[in-house]
Structure formats: structure tokens, C-alpha cells
Amino acid sequence: MTAKSIFAGRLSPSPPRFSLLGPVRAWAGNTELDLGSPQQRALLGVLLLRRDEPVSCEQATRALWGETAPRRADGTVRTYICRLRRVLGEAAGPDRLEIRSCAGGYLLTADGATVDTDLFREQLALARRARARGELEAALGHFQDGLALWRGTPFAEAHTAYFLSEREQWLRSRAVAVEELAAVQVLLGHHAEALAALEPALAAEPLCERLWELRMQALAGLGRRADALAVYQEVRQLLCAELGLEPGPGLRELHRALLAQDPEPAPVASAPAPAWPAPAELPDPPDGFVGRAAELAEIGDRLSDGRSPAVVALAGPAGVGKSALALRAAHDLRARFPDGRLYAALTGPDGRAVALRTVLAELLRAAGVTDARLTGSLPELTMLWRRLTDGRRLLLVLDDVPDGAEVLPLLPRSPGSAALLTGRRPPAGVPGAHTVVLDGLTLPDALHLLGAAVGHERLRRDAVAAARLAESCAYRPLALRGAAARLLATPRLGVAEAGRGLGTGAAVQPAEVWPAREAGLMSVQ
């Protein structure tokens, strides 16, 4: 089945179809639409990737020009939007496809339209479900159908940080799909086809051991045992020269089987590299954590499917309890990630973003890498991190992710692994991330948090004032703990007086925070 046939099976005659897996293109029926200049096409790409979500004019400008936007960039964006509305409206009709102005930005709705990025994800999901059921021929077909949708390099003409990130993540998804396709081909005995798929994949990722394993298996399956043994020596020299590491257990076991002249060495699953210490580097669970049962269940469901790397982002305003929830969830789920749980804060104590290289070095150090091997460049450390985490069921908590921070190189890539992110806003450029937006606690949970700190009886004496105090704190844990600190610091202070000066969502001042810390009340909530 080809990309065209997949589209044809999904579309009625009138809705348009869009392609982002290559140059940005659009069709109405069999007629390709003229989408204008490369930059105008790039803007359409932004809207399609974020369709049914508002894209502010600032976000669009940053995506198109990065930090070098011209003085009248907003006007240029409006011109592009006007032209796109005309082209797309004429092709599909405003009732089916519309670019609406909203809240200083734009929102694209495309009822019935088809985008190849969606089809690619669907085909991969179908392939993985079929593989899990043992239906390898069906899985093979879905992997092939998904990869057939690709028409080139996504956003090849755009070079801002936004499009570089998008391009990297989509190419990464394609590389994973090619690896999975080759593994199924080897299992089915399609060894020549597997070799053909692996050659360009290895050229792009020469340090991925799983690809070398598959290549050795394919060569052995074709009766080329000597070539397979030569491949082992090739990858061993490469890993030693580039990373200072010996091949992992998967490659070594396969090599031993070939040396023993095992006539048909069984395909070896991706295996952990040696000397992995299964680190448990999470901060302790927060004391006095209350509520968030629904959010904990949602996080658990999303991070535990085991079929692909999972990413959950906790977003919300300061003081709402994102870090506390992330750590509580991470500790609750620790049994599902036997290869380790790691933590990194992406914002320093001074409020500045921590450099990506610094974060990588901290994670590698926690994983047992010596300081002598942490002197390489950022690409070298990124490759070492990928090498060490490949094939592992690892949970990574990235806390306080700043707006616009680059997190993709940090995320584990193996099925069964997961990442839990926190930040004011959902992270940009993370494919497949599920966002949980946090607000204040419920009133009962807010009162329970206050009562646990200052005594439930003290709150019961003035229940109405206690409820108003919780409301004045916007039900946010940080403000509630600050109010509790006031009450503890001044035992004669009434509950009603503790809330004075706290408007809804008011921030707790430093002078109000330190007594709570002294009393053990201030946690990462």
C-alpha cells in the first residue's frame, strides 16, 4: 500500500490533505494547492502541528524568524494568514477549514482534513499493536505504510530553533520506525530487505547498537557468517574509539553464537549496556502531600503502557504543586521502571535555565559515568547518554523546564521508558507528550493540607474563615503553606487574620516563607 492509497482510503472528495513529512504541501482532490513562499508554507506547518490550539502572533514570529525577527514581523504574519485563508478557503470551504483570529493569535480548524503526520502515528500504533499480538505480517505492512508517507526532510528550508527541533523529533520518530521495521523483517526471514533498510539507518546513527545487532542477524540469516563476524569487529572498534566502551550484552551474545557456529542465532532483543547501576536519584517524596488522586491515576496510565517511550508534562502556575506531584507519581511508579529513576532540575536556584550540557553531565554522572569521560562536546555527551539509556526501562523527571528549553536530547527513547516534565507551560517540540494542566487543590484537600500543618481543631473553630483562607490562597499548596506558617508563628492569630493581605492567588512573600521552612512545612509542593 502506498502513501497515496492510504490518503485515498481516508478522504471524501472535498476535504484537503496536507503533507508535513517533507516539503509542506496541500491538495484538494487531485489538485495541488499553491501555498506561496517557503516562509508562508512554514507558517501553515506551524498551524497544522498545533491545529485546534491557538498560536499567538509572538509564537508564530519566533517560529519563522527565531531571535532575528524584522521590525514588522507581525504585519508579515498577518499577510501570510490572509493569503492562506484565501487559498484554503477556496479549496475546502470555510465550514471545513478555517484560520480564526483569537486572543492575539490564530487557530486552525480543519474538520475532515488529513495530515500525513497523523497517519504516520496511526500506522506506527497499528504496527506495534499487531506485533504485540504476534501478527508479524500485519505489523510489517503497517510499518511499511507509515514509512511510505515520507516525501523528504520535514521543514528542510526552515532553520530557526523551532523548526530544527521539529525536524529532529520527526526524523527521530522515523529512525525508530525503520529500526522496528528491520526487526520485524529479520523475524520474518526477509533478511535482504532488512539489510537494505539498515544501511541508511546506520549511516545516520552509527553508534546505535541495536541497528548493528539487526545487521549481524540479517547477514547471518543470508548465510554470510563471516561478514556478520566482521561487522562485530567493526562496531567494537567504533564504540571503543568514540565512547571508550565495549559492545553491550546483545552484541556480545550474538557474536558468541556466531563463533559457536549456531546455524540460526535467534534474534536478540535490545539489552542494557554493562555497568549500569540502576540509579535511584529522585529526591525524597514530599511530606504532607494531599489530593491529586485523579491526576496521579492519569499520570500512571500514561507512563505505564510500555509500548513506546511515554512523556507526560505537568503545566501550571507557580506554587500549584507541579514538582510535588511529579515526585509523588515517580515514587509511586518506581516498580515499573526497574532500570532506574533519575531527576534533573532545568532551572537553577538563581532562576536561570541550566545549560543542556550541564544537565547531561549530571545525568551521566548519576548513571555511573566518571568525570574523566564528561569532558566531551554536547553532541558527544548526547550520544553517550543515548548509548547508556538504550534498551532500558528508565523514568526521568525533568523539573521546572523553562519556556523554550531544549529537552528532546534528554528524553529516553526505548519502549517502556518514560519522562515526567514540569513547567509553567507545556514543553514545545516534544512529540507525543501528554499534558496535565494543574490548578489549585479542591477545597477539602486545601483544608486538609492546612489542618495537617496547624491542627484540624484550630480550623474547625472557624470553618468559614478557614474556607475563605483557602480561597484567598487560590487553593495552591505553596500559598497555603505560607498561610500555615503565619498561623504557626503566631499561635494567637485567628484564621481570618491569617488570610488578610492575601488576594486570590497572591504570592507568599519571602518573610512569610522562611518560618514554614523552619517548621518543616515548605516542601516542593
Report the mean per-residue pLDDT as an integer.
78
Overall, the morphology is globular
Per DSSP, the total helix count is: 21
Structural class: alpha/beta
Number of separate strands: 12
The radius of gyration is 27 Å
Distance between the termini: 51 Å
Q: How would a textbook summarize the main sheet?
A: 5 strands, parallel
Order of strands across the widest beta sheet?
A: 9-10-11-8-12
The helicity comes to 40-55%
Strand content: 5-15%
Low-confidence stretches: 3-13, 262-266, 268-275, 503-525
Chain-wise SSE layout:
Elements: H1 3-10, E1 16-19, E2 25-28, E3 31-32, H2 38-49, E4 55-56, H3 57-65, H4 73-92, E5 97-102, E6 105-110, E7 114-115, H5 116-132, H6 136-147, H7 161-188, H8 191-204, H9 209-221, H10 225-243, H11 249-259, H12 293-303, E8 310-315, H13 322-332, E9 341-345, H14 356-366, H15 378-389, E10 395-399, E11 418-423, E12 434-437, H16 443-454, H17 456-460, H18 463-472, H19 477-489, H20 495-498, H21 510-518
Parallel strand pairs: 1-7, 8-11, 8-12, 9-10, 10-11
Antiparallel strand pairs: 1-2, 2-3, 4-6, 5-6
Explain what the structure shows.
With 525 residues, this protein is α/β, with parallel strands linked by helices. Helix content is 50%, strand content 10%. Strands 9-10-11-8-12 form a five-stranded parallel β-sheet, sandwiched between helices. Strands 3-2-1-7 form a four-stranded mixed β-sheet. Helix 16 (443-454) runs parallel beside helix 19 (477-489) and helix 19 crosses helix 21 (510-518). The chain starts with a helix and ends in a 7-residue tail after the last helix. 41% of the residues are buried.
